[in-house]
């Protein structure tokens, strides 16, 4: 049965996240969690929680789910799964197991559900993990994602709070997926441009994790619903330093800047700007379109990693050889500057 999932939703993918400002406030009022085996908790808003099992193994646990971000059910399953698995890779881990999380309308054909789940299962298999089952409830719109468990050596955890001055910032995938999906819904981009964005969202960050471990990277995060600016800001504040982003060096999908210029700006971008904008210092030469680009909500985006300067060229080369063809150096880490996020 043919269906365009995007016609069922107003906002999908990671753009459906709660506004970061409101979420941060709600989480700040929760009681602090303390346990001797809890190595990474909610305190730094990292990509997952890490629980030490013994001196050799620590579990990474995470979950992610959202409404459709693309038209095809099988593609949606792949993108949603890749997005959930990405949190394990952002922390330098390997995937062990996953559980499906599903909300599906009673008035839709179960063949659609089968395709969504098939896409998700294929991505879990590609990750080397095992899909163990899941849970399904009914609702007005389809929602799909995974609860994922991975593992990492306790001394090899990569967090978002360990950036250090002198590191360079490397981004492994281009940005602009939120804008392209919005444009596709409104008939403003070609199937080729839309397809390139979908292919990027389906691409696992598995090789990025391996490369980060190879070069002893200590700090990274994946770029999703809070946009490049929002996730970079979390990294800066958690680490206690300033991040500098160079807008001219950002890898960007074709047609994204002209689309912004046309006014194709998803609502999530304005919510992200409200969250992070006051803690950004923009150079006078950074135009409005590039400012908005930084706040565009990404789904299953790339890894933003802090890399020692003398290793950066080798990391870029390995990333490109591993299939992340537009990997680029996009900035640097400095001692505290005027704002946590400096945009040039």
The mean pLDDT is 93
- Count of discrete structural domains: 2
Rg from alpha-carbon coordinates: 19 Å
Indicate the percent of residues in helices: 25-40%
DSSP summary, beta strand count = 13
Shape summary:
globular
Brief descriptors of the model:
single chain; 344 residues; alpha+beta; 60s Ribosomal Protein L30, Chain: A; Phosphoribosyl-aminoimidazole Synthetase, Chain A, domain 2; 2 domains; seven-stranded mixed β-sheet; six-stranded mixed β-sheet; 11 helices; globular
Describe the structure.
The chain is 35% helix and 22% strand. It is an alpha+beta fold and 344 residues long. The strands form two sheets. Strands 8-11-7-12-9-13-10 form a seven-stranded mixed sheet, with helices on both faces. It is globular, with a radius of gyration of 19 Å.
Write the layout of secondary structure elements.
Blueprint: H1 20-28, E1 38-40, E2 49-52, E3 58-66, H2 73-90, E4 94-104, H3 110-127, E5 130-138, E6 143-152, E7 168-171, H4 177-185, H5 191-202, H6 206-214, E8 219-222, H7 227-239, E9 242-245, H8 256-261, H9 267-276, E10 280-282, H10 288-295, E11 303-307, H11 312-321, E12 328-334, E13 341-343
Parallel strand pairs: 4-5, 9-13, 10-13
Antiparallel strand pairs: 1-2, 2-3, 3-6, 4-6, 7-11, 7-12, 8-11, 9-12
Helix pairs in contact: 2-3, 2-6, 4-5, 7-9, 9-10
Quick overview:
This protein has 344 residues and is of the alpha+beta class. Helix content is 35%, strand content 22%.
